[in-house]
Specification:
By secondary structure, the protein is of the alpha/beta class. It is about 45% helix and about 15% strand. It has a single domain, classed as Alpha-Beta Barrel (TIM Barrel). The chain has twelve helices and eight strands. An eight-stranded parallel barrel has the order 1-2-3-4-5-6-7-8, surrounded by five helices. The structure holds 2-phosphoglycolic acid (PGA).
């Protein structure tokens, strides 16, 4: 049984799926399925595409659903001539609580650099939202034994310029790239090793108390069957879920599986 020192987080990253009508149905369904006991020990966030955010915000606030609003990305600047970008100020105005920063798809498909991950993370913190900073290695880096070096490099750039107090509030998601969308998750042992390594790097970058307060999630082919196994690990404080978060029933089952690890 994992001690409940850090409140676990279950985050659903919808990626480029569900338009605002589908978002309405999915979040309403999720809200009906999540009973007070399910969210007593667990925070739940959904991360729809930008065009859905206002719809989901209105629903969540109007019906007092136990769901936090999340975004998948934002600009590192508050305003300016940046065609196609969305400002963290705009997200904060929509009562967005969590923003995924540096997802591997942003890094690989949109050439987001480690430095840009750092400046985006600072922009999210500056706007009083919580970043979920994604780190993780490719299959090739893993084969070459580079997992820890990659994680350390990504974390160092990501946390640059943050105080220990600010680092303590960040969420880090360990998402090995080969496990994302592949149906082939990391083993719980490997995921726990990476999570504990992440915590040790954060302790060096801040201090023991801040490092101990950071929530570390596992992501990559999480489903209702394996979510509880990851969450039961000592340094893993929840999961970042892609494909399996699109269906309200499956996502609610994942929330319950994680919550079960924290009930005494
Ligand atoms: P997946 O995606 O759960 O579909 O593997 C996870 C993620 O990309 O965050």
């Amino acid at each position: 049984m994992t001690p409940n020192v850090r409140r676990p987080l279950v985050s659903g990253n919808w990626k480029m799926n569900h338009d605002h009508i589908e978002a309405l149905h999915t979040v309403r369904d999720l809200g009906l399925r999540l009973k007070p006991a399910d969210v007593e020990n667990v925070t739940v966030s959904v991360h729809p595409p930008f065009t859905d955010l206002r719809t989901v915000q209105t629903l969540v606030e109007g019906e007092s659903l136990p769901i936090s609003l999340g975004a998948q990305h934002c600009s590192d600047l508050d305003s300016g001539a940046l065609t196609g970008e969305v400002s963290p100020v705009m997200l904060a105005r929509l009562a967005t609580s969590y923003v995924i920063v540096g997802h591997s798809e942003r890094r690989q498909v949109f050439s987001m650099t480690d430095e840009c991950v750092g400046s985006t993370l600072r922009a999210v913190v500056r706007n009083k939202m919580t970043p979920i900073c994604c780190v993780g290695e490719t299959a090739e880096e893993r084969e070459r034994g580079k997992t820890e070096a990659v994680i350390e490099r990504q974390l160092t750039a990501a946390m640059d310029g943050l105080s220990s107090e600010e680092i303590a509030t960040v969420v880090v998601a360990y998402e090995p790239i080969w496990a994302i969308g592949s149906g082939d998750p990391a083993s719980t042992v490997d995921a726990e090793d990476a999570a504990s390594f992440i915590r040790s790097v954060l302790v060096q970058q801040s201090d023991v108390s801040a490092g101990e307060r950071v929530r570390v999630l596992y992501g990559g082919s999480v489903n209702a069957e394996n979510a509880g196994e990851f969450a039961a690990e000592e340094d893993i404080d929840g999961v970042l879920v892609g494909g399996a978060s699109l269906d309200a029933k499956t996502f609610a089952d994942i929330v319950r599986a994680v919550g079960a690890c924290y009930r005494s």
